[in-house]
Design goal:
Elements: E1 2-3, H1 14-21, E2 27-28, H2 35-44, E3 49-51, H3 60-63, E4 70-74, H4 88-92, E5 97-103, E6 114-121, H5 128-153, H6 185-194, E7 201-205, E8 208-212, E9 215-219, E10 233-236, E11 241-245, E12 248-252, E13 254-257, E14 263-264, H7 265-271
Parallel strand pairs: 1-2, 3-4
Antiparallel strand pairs: 4-5, 5-6, 7-8, 8-13, 9-12, 10-11, 11-12, 13-14
Length: 287
């Protein structure tokens, strides 16, 4: 097994810990471009290489060493959503479908020929955690097993990616995760789902930076004469804080203040002395 060197204070790589527990050889090199990394790979006399979660660039001189080459997992339907946050961006952009791809790694990031793909739906209220843990993770494990069998048996096909359909998005970090309340309620709701559980979409609320997790979207179908600027608090219930956006309301159920743990939005409202006000319910469009 090959993995990145441990970082001070970081958790031990789960695959590394499991490999060590099983007495398997583990190699950590600062770069897989080095002669030492290539020599270590050659010493394993491997039938096939499998790249499931990759944080280091692996050159062709390295990935071609195993007898049947190397295959790589990517959690999107390539060539769409190349890049490191490929589960988050489809949700943030309102896509209704995603999936996984097993492909041959090349020197271009997520650009190699496709061996196998599997698709899954993105539900209208599903979060990043829902899509990954309930769908993409089990799909990916099975797809890697299926693709390995095909490659080892010489029964696989390699289909070049259609560059006319290709997109690339970078990390979903703090700047990308900021909630812009003048945006449409659908856009905001999708961003919150795409950042739950990490990194957590964030906003300033009652003078504090908070990360928003569980929430509901409500559509408003008529004009409300006052108190409805995007970002304003529209109401407070025992369990939630409701914020105005264009086209509707976001009802925040769970959040995390900076430096603290996750709490219900109702508890946060009580800490801040926000009075319960549920007039907002009368503005909602019937489902």
């Amino acid at each position: 097994m090959f993995c990145s060197p441990d970082k001070p204070g970081a958790k031990t790589d789960a695959l590394k810990a499991d490999a060590l527990a099983r007495g398997l050889p583990v190699h950590s090199f600062a770069s897989l471009r080095s002669h030492e990394a290539e020599a270590a790979m050659r010493s394993l006399d491997a039938d096939i290489g499998i790249m499931a979660y990759v944080l280091q660039f692996a050159p062709q001189s390295f990935v071609n060493i195993p007898r049947h080459g190397t295959i790589q997992f990517h959690p999107s339907l390539l060539p769409r959503y190349r890049g490191p946050s490929s589960i988050s961006w489809p949700i943030a952009l309102g896509a209704r479908e995603t999936g996984i791809t097993i492909f041959r790694p090349t020197d271009g990031l997520d650009e190699g020929p496709v061996i196998l793909q599997k698709t899954c739906a993105i539900g209208p209220n599903e979060t990043l955690g829902d899509v990954y843990f309930n769908k993409l993770f089990p799909l990916g494990v099975q797809a890697l097993l299926d693709a390995t069998d095909l490659v080892m048996a010489g029964r696989h096909a390699e289909t070049p990616q259609d560059e006319r359909l290709a997109t690339y998005e970078g990390w979903m970090h703090d700047e990308e995760a900021e909630i812009h309340w003048p945006g449409h309620v659908d856009t905001i709701y999708n961003l919150i789902r795409a950042c739950n559980p990490a990194p957590g979409a964030w906003m300033m609320l009652a003078g504090e930076k908070v990360r928003v997790f569980d929430c509901r979207k409500h559509v408003v179908g008529r004009f409300v004469s006052r108190g409805h600027r995007p970002g304003d608090i529209a109401g407070v219930s025992e369990d939630s804080i409701v914020i105005w956006a264009q086209g509707g309301l976001i009802e925040i159920l769970r959040l995390r203040p900076e430096g603290g743990g996750k709490v219900s939005a109702g508890e946060f409202a009580r800490r801040k002395g926000l009075a319960i006000s549920e007039a907002w319910r009368s503005w909602l469009r019937d489902a």
